[in-house]
Design goal:
single chain; mainly alpha; two-stranded antiparallel sheet; 5 helices; globular
Length: 143
């Protein structure tokens, strides 16, 4: 394994760990100081009902597969590292909630939008960055 791969792995692991901690402590803070604002979401996005055990099994598989594809298709650059960090952070942040609490704690509520949390923001940001980098993915596939 070369130094570049070790460096990239360290960057993704460190940034993911920091983001997961931010998500975890924000949920803990919300539960402690604003319990009336928190919602335990046992489904997925928009509370679509999916069995919790299915999400617990699928989440690590989807994170690993998606991260592999992102690095392979975009290449190891700042964009792919950011996308992977956000994807890992969001997926694991919500997975830890599912394992510990039986669902995901949502506490950010904006107007008519469904409640969400920092992990959801990470996942949405990763999806947005993937869309922005779509051209790089298609160019890589054509060569």
């Amino acid at each position: 394994m070369n130094n570049k791969k070790i460096k990239y792995g360290f960057i993704v692991a460190t940034s993911s760990s920091i983001l997961i901690l931010l998500d975890w402590f924000s949920k803990k803070y919300a539960l402690e100081f604003w319990p009336e604002k928190t919602v335990l979401n046992t489904g997925i996005a928009f509370s679509i009902p999916i069995p919790n055990i299915l999400m617990i099994v699928l989440t690590p598989l989807l994170i690993g597969y998606a991260s592999h594809i992102i690095i392979k298709q975009i290449g190891a650059n700042k964009s792919s590292l950011a996308i992977c960090s956000l994807l890992i952070s969001g997926g694991l942040g919500n997975l830890f909630d599912r394992l510990i609490r039986g669902g995901v704690v949502d506490f950010i509520s904006i107007w008519i939008w469904p409640s969400f949390n920092f992990a959801d923001i990470y996942l949405t940001s990763a999806a947005f960055l993937l869309i922005l980098n779509y051209g790089k993915i298609t160019r890589t596939n054509k060569t």
